[in-house]
Amino acid sequence: MQSSIGGFCLKMTICLLLLLTISIHVNGFFVKNCKVVGSLNKSNTLKVFCTRKGLYTVPEKLPYRTRVLDISRNEISKVMNNDLLHLSFLTNLNMSYNQIKVVEEHAFRNLVALQQLNLAYNKLTTIPDRLFHNLSYLTYLRLDENRIAKINPSVFLPLTSLVTLNLSGNSLHRIQEVQPLFTLPCLKDFCIRSNGFYSFKTTEVSNTSLQLKTLDLSQNPLKVFSITSNIFPDLEILDLAFISRSMKWDVKDNSFLRNVKRLNLNGIKMASEEMKVLLQTFSSSLGVLKLEQIGEEKVKALVEPACISNSPKTLQLRFNNFTSISEKELQLCTNVTMLDFSDNKVQNVSILAFRSMNKLRILNLSHNKLKAVPIAIRNISTLEILEISYNNMTKITRLDFLNLKKLLTLHVYRNDLRVVEDFAFQDLKNLRSLIMSSNKLLNINVKLWFGLCKLEYLQLASNKLSWIQRGDFKYLQSLTRLDLDDNQIQMIAIGAFDGLVCLKFLNLQSNKITQKSISSSVFSGLKRLQTLQLNNNYISYASQKRLKRPLFTSLTSLKFLSIYSQGHNGMMNIPLNFLEGLNSLRTFKARNLNIDSVHPLTFAPTPNLTFLDLSRNELISLSSKVFMPIQHLTRLSMSKTGLQSIDFLRKANLTEMQMLTIQKNALSFINDTVISSLPNLVYLSMEGNVFSCDCTNAWFIKWAEISNNTQVLNADQFKCNFPPKLRGSKLFKLDINSCVVDVEFYCFISSATVVLLTMIGALLYHFLRSQVVYAYYILLAFVYDSKQQRKQKADSFQYDAFISYNTHDELWVMSELLPQLEGEQGWSLCLHHRDFQPGKPIIENIVDSIYGSRKTICVISHHYLESEWCSSEIQLASFRIFDEKKDILILVFLEDIPTHQLSPYYRMRRLVKKRTYLSWPKPGKDTQVFWQKLRVALETRVAEEENFIL
Ligand SMILES: *[C@@H]1O[C@H](CO)[C@@H](O)[C@H](O)[C@H]1NC(C)=O
Ligand SMILES: *[C@@H]1O[C@H](CO)[C@@H](O)[C@H](O)[C@H]1NC(C)=O
Ligand SMILES: *[C@@H]1O[C@H](CO)[C@@H](O)[C@H](O)[C@H]1NC(C)=O
Ligand SMILES: *[C@@H]1O[C@H](CO)[C@@H](O)[C@H](O)[C@H]1NC(C)=O
Ligand SMILES: *[C@@H]1O[C@H](CO)[C@@H](O)[C@H](O)[C@H]1NC(C)=O
């Protein structure tokens, strides 16, 4: 065995791998399972997000300056005294949707800055006595949807700043238990919905007046509601939805609840007579009255008295199963400005239904069963917003929107519209937004839009449009946004968008557009266009050749272009002048286009590009020249592109890069030179690569843990791919201490040696000038000589080839390969079962065999790829390649293996791409040529291979 440094390193590596221990030192930006946002230095912004990570405990080693911590939606069951101990800067803590049963008494002791605390949707049954002791800045507390059946009210007394408290969805039964909470000095919003409270009496709450503004008592089985003194003078919102059927309403003075502005009586089941009494307790001009989920008949009987005694401005009548609206119900509701009738089953609306509502501004009739636009709507000259989506209308006539001169917004999506008559919108001179998506419109024409001179937003997505003609939108001179996505558009005539002088946003994605159906003149005139979406179409190019007429030359203001996912086969190529004219482009999204290279001139027209997405293409590698014109890039996404190295970034000089996304590539290690070429990197996202768990990644692991500027997202989840023994285990569990020590040790030794030699040299030179010159010549001779020797060594290998194969292929090796190569051709082969020295450690045997053979032949089959390719044999062989800079691997394919199946074996794929390899002929075919080629491969000597570098 040759004791080269390479061999030594290998052995070191192997030993290290056997000595794995768990050790992670966390500082800086790295928090296991979490994403950290903000900068460690500018501490007032630091936020840590760890939602939905399957955590069972509070994450460790949170940066002590964390301001916001979100650990909601995990499986945490216990919060311990020490978990949050050091977070004295924390202002916002979200622990909702966990399984928390226990919070230890001192868990929040040091959270002296805390303002918001969310413990909703957990399994708390009690609250420890001293839990809130130091939370004097807390303003917002959620304990809803737990299992709290008992509280010691004094627990809440330290919360002297508390404004909002939510205790809904627990198992509390008596108001006396929560009484002290009402008297917290700052409390304004108190929610005790959905508990077991069976009575609410002011005598049990307080005898002085309180500041409460919102009180939610809904979904409690209240039998008594008794207000006998004026303790809620400021109450504005009162929620009594779904209280018990037989509640006793006992409000002594009609002035006590006079300031209530919003009253929710959804699902109320009291008898009509009592309801009238109840309504009279409230103001004669209520802001909002909700009467939902009560039922058609009952509501019809209630609306009139409510409008008489409360004259509400907003009336919400959803989910009542109304089938019709007659002229009677609403005739006294003259002050209503917003009427919400959605989610009913309305089919018929009387012509006079809204006659007396001469202040109506907003009308919502969506989610009903209307077959046409109700005639009652015509002439409501005050109407500003009309919502009739989710109905069953098939047609809009030119009379439907007559005289709606103030209408600003019209929503008619999700109907069955097939026809819109010409001039249907001509009275809507003020309309800003028209949404007609998800209908069945087959075509449009210029006359439809006549009169819409102020329209800014037109939404026609998800219809069945197949072409756009010249000037179709020419009346829409104020339009800024046009959505035509998800249609069948195949043909866009030249001048289709003529007249859209204000258009900023155009969405054409998910249509049938090909490179032929859009020409450069299609977009002419769109001088202000900023965003163009062309995803999911059929644009495709056979080559990168320069286009005669590039598409976007007139879009000089375009900032955002998205063209991902084209056609059945992808776009295939980006023509080198595809982006010509897009001088203002900032974002280019080109994922999933089935392109395998990018021409270095592609981005020359777009010097201000900051975000480039090339993910899910077959790029494998990119030239750094591609990035030369786009030095302001701050975000680059290249996930799933088969990258084997990101060394191209080193020369690309992307000093402004902030976020690099390279997930699911074939990267096995990251070195410091690439990272140091990205001085402003904030996020590095590279999950799902094929990491090598050895000292090659020692630097990376260390850096990811301590970097204060860059966060390696989900670094703790990175999995090892090599060595095979560690496949699937976590990269960050690798013990890198020994690697670091080695490097330092070598550095120490080498620098010490240099210093020593220099000193000796200086001394020698001083005392023995002539002898030194003589020694120098001797040294030269020695170097020359050893070079010669090494050349000779090439001929003094013990074997000609080491055969690496899987036991499944042993038959072929023994019956075909061995007789031919050893018998016929006379090579000496090394086979592990035959030639390994018994008693010697297996690794040493392999090392000796590879270094003792001139070549290594890999017999490749599916079995081989699965079990041997990443084995130590191959790693050793490739290290020898590095070591000696010459090719020693000969690949023999026993079976047909399509290249895409090779993609997980990136090193193999690369070899196959770069070099010729040998395939064993199919059964019955002649094998002569194969053996001849193998002979040539084995004969090839060092001289011819010197330039090959893997
Ligand atoms: C409305 O009708 C549905 C189904 O017919 C029924 O389940 C629901 O309870 C009704 N709602 C009211 C408020 O009556
Ligand atoms: C409508 O509101 C005005 C002023 O707020 C009030 O004077 C009038 O009585 C209200 N009309 C009805 C029918 O309640
Ligand atoms: C519209 O009406 C048809 C029958 O006329 C019915 O099958 C369909 O479900 C209705 N759609 C809606 C959204 O009510
Ligand atoms: C690039 O951006 C800068 C500043 O945002 C601007 O001054 C310059 O005109 C832009 N270049 C082009 C070609 O649009
Ligand atoms: C890299 O970029 C910096 C500034 O962004 C510039 O000064 C330097 O010349 C560039 N280097 C190369 C090799 O392009």
From TrEMBL:
Q: Where are the transmembrane segments?
A: 748-768
Superkingdom of origin: Eukaryota
Q: Name one GO biological process term.
A: toll-like receptor signaling pathway
Which residues are in the TIR domain?
A: 797-938
Keywords, A to Z, come to: Glycoprotein, Immunity, Inflammatory response, Innate immunity, Leucine-rich repeat, Membrane, Receptor, Repeat, Signal, Transmembrane, Transmembrane helix
Q: Which SMART domains match?
A: LRR_BAC (SM00364), LRR_SD22 (SM00365), LRR_TYP (SM00369), LRRCT (SM00082), TIR (SM00255)
Record's bilayer topology term: Single-pass type I membrane protein
In its UniProt record, a GO molecular function of this protein is: signaling receptor activity
Q: Where in the cell is it found?
A: Membrane
Spell out the GO cellular component terms annotated for this protein, sorted alphabetically and separated by semicolons. Answer: plasma membrane
Q: Which residues form the signal peptide?
A: 1-28
> What InterPro entries does the entry give?
Cys-rich_flank_reg_C (IPR000483), Leu-rich_rpt (IPR001611), Leu-rich_rpt_typical-subtyp (IPR003591), LRR_dom_sf (IPR032675), TIR_dom (IPR000157), Toll_tir_struct_dom_sf (IPR035897)
What family does the Swiss-Prot or TrEMBL record give for this protein?
A: Belongs to the Toll-like receptor family.
Q: What is this protein called?
A: TIR domain-containing protein
- Species annotation: Pygocentrus nattereri
